[in-house]
Specification:
The protein is α/β, with parallel strands linked by helices. It has helices at 8-18, 35-46; strands at residues 22-26, 49-53, 73-76. It has one domain (8-76): Rossmann fold. The chain contains two helices and three strands, in the order αβαββ. Helix 1 packs across helix 2 (35-46).
Amino acid sequence: MNDYNLELEKAVSEIKKQKAKKVCIQLPDGLKPKAGEITDTLKEKTGAEIFIWLGSCFGACDIPEMGNIKADLLIQWGHSRWSS
């Protein structure tokens, strides 16, 4: 996926671990052009239905309101790692 390490195998592993059937992906604007590639890879490797949140994203605390779409798992990309 070009210059980015999107850790897709980590996402695939978590989807399988959670047995998620519907997964919402939240991307910062700079990664949204990669949404199709991300979706295709995750669908192919997990069989899950993947939804891309196209609204604004202002950090890890910005959880999308998806209305009637009930996702089993939310995966967010592009946020700084939290240190403890």
